[in-house]
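Checked the freezer inventory, then went back to the computational side. Two predictions to log before the end of the day. The first one is the construct we discussed on Monday; recording sequence and tokens without edits.
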Amino acid sequence: MAPPQNNIVTSTNRGDTTINVRELLQQPWYKYPHLRKLYAWMSVVLLVQATNGLDGSIMNGMQTLTYWQSYFNHPTGAQLGLFNGTQGLGGVVSQFFLWWLVEKIGRKLTIIAGAVIIIIGVFLQSFANGLVMFACARAVIGLGLSFEYTAAPMLVTELAHPTHRAQLSTLLNTLYNFGATLAAWITLGTLQIQSDWSWRSVSLIQMFPSLISITLTWWVPESPRWLVSQGRNEEAYKILLDNHCGGDESDPLTSFEFNEIQSTLTFEKEHSTGSWLDLVRTKGNRHRTWIVFTCAIAAQASGTTLTGYYLAVVLRTIGVTNAQHQAIINGCLTMWNMGWAFWGAFVIDRYGRRPMMLTSLTGISKDLVRALTEMDQYNVDGNVRAGQASLAFIFLFTAFYSTVWNGILTGYTVEVMSYDIRSKLICTQNLLVQATITGFNYLNPVAIEHISWKYYVVICCIILLEIVLVYFTYPETSKITLEEISTIFDGKHAVHNDLLAKQEDQEEPLDDQKGVAVERREVSTNEA
């Protein structure tokens, strides 16, 4: 009889009942047929974030298109902020009911509903006949996007094999750069169209990821955690068995995961009131809420909205005024960011969340200061070399950002949330992200035109504060299962997997309980 595919190694420095998820599989994921199938379907969910990237890059690209500028009378300042800011308003409104909806109808249906809304918004935007209609379309698109990026991180985190949870959940948000790259180069191509279709055709492209979502999401497995919460235990067990163990009932991981999920959700249900006050009721939940609150703001307050939505404006301030040159730089920058984001997603479990966040913030602060210094020098004396240097430091700054912060909102904050408050905290996080983006989208074009470097000095001070927050308040969460992360926040009050204790009390495996056969070994878990 072939040995089980998953080898459970227990007793990490998080406790005797925790397991090292990096030790589970002895081969790469692509050598397991069931994981190839699972991740092929999950790629449909991962594609969700490409829609957001398309949106951000398209708004950047449209500002380089002559016909878009002419059609909307060359918007600047607060008016330009309105074009981008209304997208966030749609996302803000939805967060007040999405926390309930995603638990009521599940992760998959929420994603599909969001895709339908996005398609409606894209049609309105593509055929807009004025500022009001365009702004309303942006709000509708923001509403639909919020459906998708509320449910998608939950589904990816809760469905992925434990060994690959960190990489996949981080990869979700990094696919923003994939969508942004496509949009940037497509926009460059449409510069040759001598009509309003130069921007209308680019806008229509936004619907294609949503069409894929509507068509294929039905066949993606539902979250086993959500199924257990709905009392559909047999379905949840079958999904874990088929997708994590290849249907092998002798594999110990299925029982280990199912018991851990069931016992944790039962405990949380017994001790949760279902109220929003649960977010601050216990010491562990207050810590979780603090991380989500600060991380959501930090991810958007590090200068990223500047290059993400107003790159064309920034380029004009350093002497790059040719529309084609702006479009080429936009395309190259998004490809550059995508490469670094993908690399960060694949190494985040190896190096740890904390070390990567601290390194990223240090690099961001250093290179952003240099970029702004050179930009100011160009504005003072028109030094061409200063403008070129500023552009180089923009590339370096965005590389440090993309490596970590593109994916951290799905690769770190979602996993620190316990199931009973996950939907509420994700909506809180999205609300903060959208509010921060909206605020910076209104302020950035005004800042570029009027208060220049003083505004960016404030951003640098914010980044230094973020470094302090990460160092003192963000714990490491790598190499343990999703439920076991509660041991970090809840300590002795956390639920422990009792199958391991039962295993020790018996000489034979618990076949009647689908017990877990384990290898007992001390494993060191990296903590920064």
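The second is the one RB wanted added to the comparison set:
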Amino acid sequence: DGMNVLFIVVDDLRPVLGCYGDKLVKSPNIDQLAAQSMVFSNAYAQQAVCAPSRVSFLTGRRPDTTRLYDFYSYWRVHAGNYSTMPQYFKENGYVTLSVGKVFHPGVSSNYSDDYPYSWSIPPFHPSAEKYENDKTCRGKDGKLYANLVCPVNVTEMPGGTLPDIQSTEEAIRLLNILKTNRQKFFLAVGYHKPHIPLRYPQEFLKLYPLENITLAPDPWVPKKLPSVAYNPWTDIRQRDDVEALNVSFPYGPLPDDFQRQIRQSYYAAVSYLDVQVGLLLNALDNVGLSNNTIVVFTADHGWSLGEHGEWAKYSNFDVATRVPLMFYVPGMTSFPVSQGARVFPYLDPFSHIGGSAPRGQSKKVVELVSVFPTLAELAGLQVPPVCPETSFGVVLCTEGTSIVHYFNVSEEKVEEGKEACDDTDRCFNEEPVAFSQYPRPADTPQWNSDKPKLKDIRIMGYSVRTIDYRYTVWVQFDPNNFSADFKDVHAGELYMMETDPNQDYNIYNNASHGWLL
């Protein structure tokens, strides 16, 4: 009979969640999901920008295989006709549905969110989405602006709603239909917040008094940070409120009080998101499907909140590449509940007190590219084969590896003797690693450093994250033949996690690197 799948992907969400140890955030519904899930505390995206990351984890291939580092090509035409995760479920008899931002819209998903390959019916996009970047933020002078920090009165918004509210309503509507027609489903729900602009219902600010908001622990540009590694957060500079601050390019710090406002609004947007997730999971209970639906919760990448003097994504640091990742699997990660009992009662972040620890937590380093084979295995489908060295001509394969074998390994056992890893794992001393990468147009920060177009890419930063370190080399890259020259290293970074968890002290130049490779 098989399990249904509810796949929740959030835009630009770093793990500022109670279940990930954040003490400030109020995220009771996501924490409640975590309490019955396998939670991965060291999960990383393959490139810290929307379209490349989403195409990567939805196809199970790395950006060097999708050949998408920007927003401007469709992998089936430009790289290879790769099957996607929803397509694989669809071909295995599931009805597949997309709500909100799952694929990145536009040319990178063929202006159709890869319909009809990936989805049984055309994807749903909330109508309020088109107002996201309009002047809907009321300034102190009463006028409307296109601000970064944008708490709003929802009743004053066009249509009296916001995109994520509409996506939740549509997903709930679909769940009610799916309940009656009893067909196995793969329902993907993509939430927009906390992507900029930080536009959310203003009442969520009440959860985060400004006096409780601190700056990042390391709000300065590290002395030994290579200039090629720095992302100059061009997109937020273009918002009206940031533009008015007249901050110097590329390093000029934002004023401290404004930094705290951004952090406050990011947290508020996360709590607004938590409410949407809570309503969605509560609906899963209401239609009686919590006992036979796998729930995956993740994000396309993180977002810097002032760390290293940086904002937004577009880098190889943990703050930009690390994502929440959890799998709720009825009967495996949670005990089956009696018919009619609530698995996901809605929790109000304004009144709910107290957190809940994750059901199981793995510190193993894992990659989003592994979600496809993992979900296939959890659903009882054949796991797609591991890709050969070059796989442009291979329709179905994955460059990730199923991480189901981490689900029931107790952490203590792992500490004693490192478990051997099978052939499919890329292993460094039998320890899993995560690869991320980021392109740059030049060695110094430019206006297009955050989002260079393919033709302008000259350098690729390849980054390896293990449990012990993050190691990055910025190497010469030729966009005409997609080749990286590892003999031509422009700069390097090495951060040791034990002594430098925030990645502030680059020791690349005072280390010998033989032991790494």
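For RB: Confidence is low (pLDDT under 50) at residues 410-429. Residues 4-410 form a domain with the Alkaline Phosphatase, subunit A fold (CATH 3.40.720.10). Let me know if you want it refolded.
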